[in-house]
Design goal:
Dipeptide-binding Protein, domain 3, signal, D-Maltodextrin-Binding Protein, domain 2, Glycine/betaine ABC transporter, alpha/beta, disordered N terminus, two-stranded parallel ribbon, 298 residues, transport, 48% helix
Length: 298
């Protein structure tokens, strides 16, 4: 009799305990769902390199939108995408600094937050920037860069291949082979090289890695000896301005690299726009129920 009573008591206790735990979980879930966006992401925006133009624009956005409680986390592009993947796989909220073109928009279902105050500007353009005297010294290289124009989808395809494990030069070579007509327009009337050395400066952005790999391959096929120097954005522009490198393919204007363009004005040549319709801003997964930077104040 005592054994039966003890068993019954334990069973009742276990049931009540499980019910209590379930109640705690439900309460925790409800509390989490009722939390503000800021509370759910601990008032953090995941950024990239501290010297990047998008970081300056985001610091301005925090001020303009009255987000005094928010912190912009400095890091790198790789760290940002790693944080995005971790959150996305668990369908957790996250806010990142983002730009297009980038492979993450092909890999994940993302959206830009609306920017009613226009802090991030409108449409951005990627410019090819050359050192003074490039046209006279290396006319073939200059002409190629002046005719170099492509679409975001082209660049993103290369970025996805690189992200999947291909070497940049291999991904670029495959794209060149599959897009011979486009490359023919770039090289139309371009003087072939005879082993002349060409130095390109680049930053470790997926977009710039892709574009530099493509142009490096094309120049090599034309007979030039190409060297790529990976540096930060500041030294990249400095190299073109002081003539130690021939060109860069990542002049994001008018917002992202505005400071560098103004600082070195008159010391470089804006050869032309290679891509239109690029964009920067704050990005979130589409499963997050917010649409504007204004929503971060709630």
């Amino acid at each position: 009799m005592f054994k039966k009573a003890l068993t019954a008591t334990l069973a009742i206790g276990l049931t009540l305990g499980l019910a209590a735990c379930g109640g705690d979980e439900e309460a925790g879930t409800k509390e989490k769902s009722n939390a503000s966006v800021g509370e759910r992401v601990e008032y953090e925006i995941v950024g990239i390199d501290p010297g990047a133009g998008i970081m300056k624009a985001t610091a301005t956005a925090i001020e303009e939108y009255g987000l005094e409680d928010w912190t912009l986390i400095e890091g790198s592009g790789a760290a940002m995408t790693a944080a995005l993947k971790k959150a996305y796989d668990k369908e957790e909220p996250i806010i990142i600094t983002g730009w297009t073109p980038h492979w993450k928009f092909s890999a994940y279902d993302l959206k830009y937050l609306e920017d009613p105050k226009g802090v991030y500007g409108g449409e951005e353009f990627i410019h090819s920037i050359g050192r003074l005297g490039l046209k006279e010294d290396l006319p073939g290289v200059h002409k190629l860069l002046s005719q170099f124009k492509w679409e975001a989808a082209d660049m993103e395809g290369i970025m996805v291949d690189i992200q999947d494990g291909e070497k940049p030069e291999d991904a670029a070579a495959k794209w060149i082979e599959e897009n011979a007509d486009t490359v023919a327009k770039w090289t139309d009337g371009v003087q072939e090289g005879n082993g002349e050395e060409v130095t390109l400066a680049m930053v470790a952005w997926d977009s710039n890695i892709a574009s530099t790999a493509v142009i490096s391959n094309v120049l090599t096929d034309l007979g030039y000896e190409v060297t790529s120097r990976q540096v930060e954005a500041g030294p990249m522009w400095t190299g073109v301005a002081d003539g130690s490198v021939d060109a860069l393919l990542a002049g994001w204007l008018p917002v992202t690299h505005e400071d560098y363009a103004k600082e070195f004005e008159g010391k470089y040549e804006d050869i032309g726009i290679s891509m239109e319709g690029v964009k920067i801003g704050l990005v979130v997964p589409k499963y997050m129920d917010i649409d504007s930077i204004e929503d971060l104040k709630e």
